[in-house]
Amino acid sequence: MLSYRHGFHAGNYADVLKHSILLQALSLLQKKDKPLVYIDTHAGAGGYALEDDFAQKTGEYLEGIGKLWQETSVPQAMTAYLEAVRHFNEGNEEQATDELAWYPGSPAIVDMHLREQDRMLLHELHNTDVELLQEYFEGARQVKLVHGDGLQGLLAAVPPLERRALVLVDPSYELKSDYQDVADTLIKAHRKFATGVYLLWYPVVNRAQTEAMLTKLKDSGIRRQLRIEQSIKPDSDEFGMTAAGLWVINPPWQLDTQAEELLEWLHPRLNQGGGSVTVTWEVGE
Question: Lower CB density within 10 Å: C or N end of the chain?
Fold first, then answer.
C-alpha cells in the first residue's frame, strides 16, 4: 500500500466521476446551515502536477479531465467541479491560465467549498504525501491531518461532534485484502454512525472481486445504498481498469438524479467503445 501514488492516475476518467459526485454531495448537504465534517480516509497529496513524471508516464488525465476542462456548455452537475479545476490552475502563477498543468485532489476540491462552520479530517499513510498535505494546509484551522491508516481512523472519528459527515473512502486496492477490509470498515462505521453519508470509490479491474465487496455491503442490512458507475469499455480479463464507480450509503436527496444528468453528459465524451453507465438503487429505504 505504501508504494501507491495517485499522481500516476490524477485527473483520469475515474477522478472526474469521483470528484464531480463528491462536490454534488457536499453541495446538497450544505443546503442546511448546520456544520458538517468531511472525512477523507485516503487523502493523497492534495494536488498533482500533470507535467511531472507520474502523470506523464501514464497520460491518463488526457482521457479524463483533459477532454473536458475547456468545455463551456456543461450540465449543472459538472459546473462546480470544472470551476474547481480551473481555479486550481489559475492559482499557480508558473503556468498560463489557459493551460491544464495541475489537478486538485479531493482535499483541495473540498477545501474550496468549505464553509466557516465546517471542518475536514484527512488521513494519509504515505510519508511523502503526508508532508505535501501538511505544506498545503499549513495554518488551516479547519483542517486536521492524521498520518496513519484511514480505515482505522474512520472508526475512531465517528460519530463526529457535528452529527453530520460526508465520508470519502478511496483506497488504492493494491492488496486483495483491501476489498474485504473496506466493506468490513464501512459496516462497522455505519453501526457507530448510521446517518453519515458514505462515498466508497471502487475500480473495476476484476469484476468478480469488485462485486464481492459490493454484495457484502448490499447484504449487510444497511438501507439506502446507491450505485453510480461509469465504464469506458467492456469488462475484460486483460490488465487495466475498465470501469469505476461510487457506492453511496445515505445519498443526499437528489444525488441520484444529478448523477444521471452528469453521466448522460460524460458518457459520449469519455467512452472508449462499448462502455455504459449505471445509476441504480441497490438497496432502498
Answer: C
Does the annotation list 42 as a binding residue? yes
Task: Write out pLDDT tens, residues 62-71.
Answer: 999 999 998 9
Q: Do 32 and 114 contact (CB within 8 A), yes or no?
A: no
Q: How far apart are CA 41 and CA 79, in angstroms?
A: 26
Q: Is 150 annotated as a binding residue?
A: yes
Tell me what pLDDT residue 26 has. 98
124 is in an annotated binding site: yes
CB 270 within 8 A of CB 67: yes
DSSP assignment of the chain equals: -TT--GGGTTTSHHHHHHHHHHHHHHHHHTTS-S--EEEESS-TTSEEETTSHHHHHH-GGGGTHHHHTT--S--HHHHHHHHHHHHHHHT-TTS-TTS--EEE-HHHHHHTT--TT-EEEEEE--HHHHHHHHHHTTT-TTEEEEES-HHHHHHHH-S-TTS-EEEEE-----STHHHHHHHHHHHHHHHH-TT-EEEEEEEESSHHHHHHHHHHHHTTS---EEEEEEESS---SSSS--EEEEEEESPPTTHHHHHHHHHHHHHHHH--SS-EEEEEEEE--
Q: Is 208 exposed, middle or buried (0-12, 13-18, 19+ CB in 10 A)?
A: exposed
Sign of torsion over alpha carbons 261, 263, 268, 273: negative
CA–CA distance, 266 with 13 (Å, rounded to integer):
9
Q: Which three cell numbers stand for residue 95?
A: 503556468
Report yes or no on whether pTM surpasses 0.90.
yes
Indicate which residues carry an active-site annotation: 170
Asked if residue 98 has pLDDT above 80, the reply is: no
- β-strands 102-104, 47-49: how paired? antiparallel
